[in-house]
Amino acid sequence: MKKKSSFSGQIGFVLAAAGSAVGVGNLWRFPYLVAKDGGGLFLIIYIVLVLTFGFTLLTTDIAIGRKTGQSAIAAYETMRPGWKKLGILTFCVPMLIMTYYAVIGGWILKYFTVYLTGDFAAAAKDDYFTDFITDPSSVWFGLIFMLLTGFIVYNGVEGGIERCSKFVMPILLVLVVGIAIFSLTLRSGDESGAVRTGLDGLKVYLMPDMSGLTLSRFLQITLDAMSQLFFSLSVSMGIMITYGSYVQKEVDLNKSVAQIEIVDTGVAILAGMMIIPAIFVFSGIDGMSAGPSLMFVALPKTFYTMGKAGYVIGLVFFLLTAFAALTSCISVLEAITANCMEVFHTERKKTTGVLTIIYLIATAVIALGYSVFYVEVKLPNGSTGQLLDIMDYISNSFLMPLISVFSTILVGWIVGPKWIAEEMEHPNGKFSRKHLYNIMIKYVAPFIMVILFLQSTGLLDR
Ligand code: PHE
To answer: Membrane spanning segments where (predicted)?
Structure first.
């Protein structure tokens, strides 16, 4: 039998997994949620959840991967023969996400090139973003991003994914820290003489805002934090199972899980430190929005107001965002590739080649969802959206919570937490948070995941 591909060691694995985890979720969703959900209050709740839920789900996925040496479809079947269906359901998540992730990557690429060519004034105009995505030629950026992703995955686990993550992640970390520090030094004054500084912005970010805190608001914040958390950690979509299957037996999974949690949460918190003070000083915190409009409308305006320094910061910002999106995008394609290779017994290069062609087409279709294939659909959670939002809704709001319900039941009650513990105890016999894990996976997680599922599908509100 051919030797299975693997990461070269712990560092390679942690950087690749952290590369998957750190993505646009950290940069455009986390800071927004902090601003919306009471600043430090959200931060505290989020950190507690990372150490409990995040830890539990991440441990589960990675241990399943390494123990079975397989990706989701085959791995769940190995765990319990009747559970292949859960594997197939899990496989659907990256399959759907892949249709639109390169589209978002393409938007980032576009802004990076706009800054590179020096036209950052144009990017600050009101309708710039809408004009761009509604123009069919915007498709090219998504296609380039998709090709790049395909190329890296084509080169294999160590030669492609690990090599790319080892190059990109350290740069990304340095840039995030650098901009966060710079953000704190910002200041602006208006005609009335009022001065706003980055440090005031930091206070807004970190101080827990308890005003008007009711039980229902507290629950809302907790659910926001929870859904952010597992999107951010790339769990319950088979990605961490696939990456786990490439980890050699001598690597300490306890340490690896902790390091991935730290990098992902660290970058999210630093992203807040770079974005919130900048928006606070130059646009006022009311200008804080989520998703594309934060990244492609509010921030370019803020950078423009900052003048020359804003130009440099903007350029660096879009570079690091492109890096973050790229390492996430390759993890999505890798999860699909690995499952296909196992199910169809095909080899990597051919599999990646075929998948890249399929997803080039999908990327084009989804990108054209704002022009040629424009639709406007009302989603069950009350929002309206185009093709991209439909894919996002099905994968993240519907499938991911559903999969975590079933996978926690499978591990907690059918296979038993001991099955995971054995893998975590290898090779040094220490599974430091074992008791916490047992309680979480059996009693807390399945129950809370049902609530999260009902909430994110909008069923709870009715
Ligand atoms: N974890 C990534 C983020 O925080 C998102 C992601 C989702 C990555 C799905 C891969 C797959 O943005």
So the answer is: 39-65, 86-109, 138-155, 167-186, 225-246, 267-289, 309-333, 354-373, 393-415, 436-454
